C-alpha cells in the first residue's frame, strides 16, 4: 500500500479551503443584491406619494403597507402596472397585503394618497417582496460552477454547503421581514395607545369635574331644604 506524503494532503487541504472561500465570498456577494425593499415615510396632508418598483416577467410581487401614525390612520392605495392599468385600488384603508402574479416586465407604480385629509399627516410603512419565476428571490442568484471532476467528494460537499447556505439565507430573510412587519404593528399600536390615552385622560377629567359640580349642587340643594327661615318674635 502506497503512502501519500503529508505535503500532498496539506496542498489538497489548502486548495479545498481556497475553493470554499471563493464560493462563500461569491455567495455572500450575491446575497447582498436583494430586490426586496421597505420604507417608512411621512405623507403630508392633502398630498400623494408614488414609488416605482422594477420587476421581471412572470415573477411575483407582494406589497404590504400599514399606516402607523396620524389621525384616522387611513390612506388611499393604488398599484398601477407598467402598461398603465390600475390593478389595485383601495380607499381609506389602514393596512393591506396584495400579491401581483404573474408580473410584467417593467416598472410598477405604487401610490399612497392623503389628499382627502386637510390637516392630518400620516406615517406609512410599506414593504415590497420580489420573487422571480419559480419562486427564486432577487438575491438568490446562481452560484458559479467549478472546474472539478464530476462525482468527486469535494464537489459533493460544496454542493451540500451551497444548498444549506441557500436555505439558511431564505429563512433569515423571511425572519427579518416578519420582524420588520411586527415592528410596524408595534409602532402603530403604540401610537394608538398614546392617542387613546390622551382622550381617556381628557374625558376622565371632564367626568370628575361634572361629578364634583353635581355633588356640590346636591349638597347646596339639601341644605336649602332644611334651612329654617322662621324668625323668632320677642
TrEMBL record:
Species for this entry: Oryzias javanicus (Javanese ricefish)
Keywords: Endoplasmic reticulum, Membrane, Signal, Transmembrane, Transmembrane helix
Annotated family: Belongs to the EMP24/GP25L family.
PANTHER family: TRANSMEMBRANE EMP24 DOMAIN-CONTAINING PROTEIN
InterPro entries given in the database record: Emp24-like, GOLD_dom, GOLD_dom_sf
UniProt xrefs under SMART domains: EMP24_GP25L (SM01190)
Positions of the GOLD domain: 48-130
The protein's name in its UniProt record: GOLD domain-containing protein
Subcellular location(s) per record: Endoplasmic reticulum membrane; Endoplasmic reticulum-Golgi intermediate compartment membrane; Golgi apparatus, cis-Golgi network membrane; Membrane
Gene Ontology CC: endoplasmic reticulum membrane; endoplasmic reticulum-Golgi intermediate compartment membrane; Golgi apparatus
Xref: Pfam families: EMP24_GP25L (PF01105)
Annotated membrane topology: Single-pass type I membrane protein
Transmembrane segments: 200-222
Domain of life: Eukaryota
